[in-house]
From TrEMBL:
Pfam families (UniProt xref): NmrA (PF05368)
Compositionally skewed regions (Pro residues) per UniProt: 185-194
Region (Disordered): 180-202
Name under which the protein is recorded: NmrA-like domain-containing protein
InterPro entries tied to this protein: NAD(P)-bd_dom_sf (IPR036291), NmrA-like (IPR008030), NmrA/Isoflavone_reductase-like (IPR051609), PCBER-like (IPR045312)
Keyword match Cytoplasm: no
Biological source species: Lepraria finkii
Keyword NADP tagged: yes
């Protein structure tokens, strides 16, 4: 049996996903270190160790000393910097790297061709494999989640403006895609004053019951079982849905027949072409058009990966929930922000 992971480092913990992962790791009683740049203003509970510095090789090697696993949640502009982090982690003796994947299925060649930024993620995994070839103690797990349901619905990325009740459906909204969501947030959960020394190899019952991000909970569950998904991809799913199904859930949650919505239909192909033109001109909004256009295109772009991929929710003790229930909860509160 592999030695349990105890000391975990998170790089990029101040973003959209990072706080949920931090919260889950604290609830699972890992000893947690946050690696941040000197300019970072993000705050965390007092039990978290924070190391700030420029991401130079020397700083990263020093920061990763004594760390069992490193979770990277860096944004798109910093995806390439992960290679230096991987090199430093290997030199420091880290045993598991979780790269900043957390999105579409980057093993799908059509997805890689459609959305250029996905190639940066795929290149990081290639680099990890290359480094691991000469550092056999280094392993990796890449986590595929699809879009985060509550975050995307709130910000209008699914084509629904919740304030003005304007809906844009692409190809009548029938393209299927797999997504994860963030369970509803209750009062802030206080982490233990100090980490528990022994990290048991069973998923803590508290983790199954507390209100945590599906992805955050999965990261904690994964690192609680060192041999699971070693050197492989982990696919997560809350549900597979479509714009049409989301629209139906929105109407049911608000008790309307949709007559108060202004609906416009567009083609996925036109959406993708517009996105390519924007991106070619350096307009990063075009990247979002490509990402969500590929979602609405469904199986053509591999966005419904739950159809054909082995989903890891059950093995890790992560529950799946229904679209209607989650949609209602999204409308009733803010579920994509963690407050300590």
């Amino acid at each position: 049996m592999s030695t349990p992971f105890k000391n975990i480092a998170v790089v990029g913990a101040g973003g959209n996903l990072g706080p949920f992962i931090v919260r889950s790791l604290l609830l699972s009683n890992f000893a947690l270190t946050i690696i941040a740049r000197p300019t970072s203003t993000s705050t965390f509970p007092p039990s978290v160790r924070i190391l700030k510095g420029e991401y130079t090789p020397d700083f990263l090697v020093s920061a990763f000393k004594g760390i069992d696993a490193v979770v990277l949640t860096v944004g798109g502009a910093a995806l390439g910097e992960q290679k230096g982090m991987v090199d430093a982690a290997a030199k420091a003796g880290v045993r598991r790297i979780v790269p900043s994947e957390f999105g579409s299925d980057t093993t799908n060649p059509v997805a890689l061709q459609t959305v250029p930024v996905y190639n940066a993620k795929a290149d990081v995994v290639k680099h990890i494999k290359s480094v691991a070839a000469t550092h056999p103690n280094l392993t990796w797990t890449s986590i595929i989640t699809g879009p985060f349901y509550d975050w995307c619905l709130k910000l209008g990325f699914y084509g629904f403006d919740l304030t003005t009740h304007k809906a844009t459906l692409y190809d009548n909204g029938h393209g299927k895609f797999t997504t994860v969501h963030t369970p509803p947030r209750s009062a802030p959960i206080q982490p233990p004053a100090s980490p528990i020394k022994e990290n048991k190899q069973t998923l803590p019952s508290k983790l199954k019951q507390t209100t945590l991000s599906t992805t955050g909970a999965a990261v904690a569950a994964l690192l609680s079982h060192p041999t699971k998904y070693e050197n492989s991809y982990l696919y997560l799913s809350s549900f597979t849905t479509s714009q049409a199904e989301i629209f139906a859930a929105l109407k049911k949650a608000t008790g309307t027949n949709g007559s108060d919505w202004i609906v416009e239909n567009k083609s996925v192909e036109g959406y993708m072409q517009a996105g390519n033109k924007k991106f070619a001109k350096g307009d990063m909004h075009g990247l979002y058009d490509l990402i969500f256009g590929s979602m609405f295109g469904g199986s053509k772009y591999g966005s419904d990966y739950a159809n054909g991929r082995e989903i890891g929710n059950k093995e890790l003790g992560i529950e799946e929930e229904g679209l209607e229930k989650v949609t209602k909860e999204v409308l009733e509160g803010d579920r994509h922000v963690v407050k300590w």
